[in-house]
Amino acid sequence: MEAPQITIGEPGSFAWKVFHERHPAMVDQVCAATPYGPEVRSRLAGLLRESTAGVVAPLDDEAPDRERWAAWADGQVGRPWRECAFLWAESYFFRRLLAAVGYFTPGAWWGVDPFAPMKTAELHSAATTATLQAFDALPELSADERDAAVVRAAVWGNQADLAFQLSTGVSGTAGLVAGSSREFWSLFTGGGPVHLVADNAAGELAADLALVDHLLTTRRADRVVLHVKPTPYYVSDATPADVLAVLRHLLDLPGEAGAIGQRIWAGLRDGRVEVRAHPFFCAPLDYRAMPDDLRQEFASAAVTVLKGDLNYRRLVGDRYWPATTPFGGAVSHFPGPVAALRVLKSEVVVGLDEETVAGLGDGAWRTSGSHALIQTNPPA
Ligand SMILES: O=P(O)(O)OC[C@H]1O[C@](O)(CO)[C@@H](O)[C@@H]1O
Fold it and tell me: What number does the ligand 1 atom closest to the CA of 204 have?
């Protein structure tokens, strides 16, 4: 039987707090970062009111994705937001936020990413700078150590606000609740295309590019498809523009970070690296509902790597699963071998053993970003 779906209506729950506490703070941040006029600010205030106390309104823009979203919103428009599934509601909120800031309307803010200032600040932050400098240690490591370091960087890069360790030190892995770099690498049995479904821009994306580079240089992949979001989403999610921004940033750096940037640049030019932005990556649905073209792509991949918390929720289903629910069963719908690399930032988790769960205590570990996991199917 399926576990209960997470909705946003339970006062005090994690999902409720995202709408009632995080979203107002995020809108303040968006309005401080770009000089939006009174109309935009009033639309944003209206969206906050509607999504915390009202019913779901339809889209009222003429964006190219309108029809697609109308289908995805079927059955939700007119419902009280509090009854909506967390996964659906959060995605729709971001789509409505883009419309509210004029992202789809010819005019001053047409195509302007409201989150770009935050992503740029993160790319130039001390934490990201330290991470990129740590790449210099990579060539000195043994092959096993390098395997472990690159995976550790990709996992903990998802912990947006913390620099992670690329050295062979243990600090970055102290909070792994499942899996290991060895389990991750055991999925790669030789060549073929690897798909990496990216999450956040800036530091996490830089670590993901280091993973792409490592997949290619160690010949675990002969080609890597990097999937990003077609439009700005969940504040820091990577879009094609963010890939280019991170790549240019890497190219300006000395040492291994610059060398990785050059190899990825060359890979893009010769087709060994491809960036795609399928509309489904901004869909308010889980991966069971993926369209056939995407399903076929993942079916033909040697391995698909899914980064981050939201991709995990979409992979296993955004439900209150018992934490010991087998990962293999939860992802059996996925059309090929899959690995999840994720810092825990929401209530959803599966695939833990009973001892681990007992040792973790109360539920704070699920949402605080202090713990991470590496899970694969088929398992090692
Ligand atoms: O960037 P990530 O790892 O996908 O995390 C995003 C997570 O943040 C939230 O938006 C709010 O915590 C979650 O709903 C979501 O799963």
Answer: 1
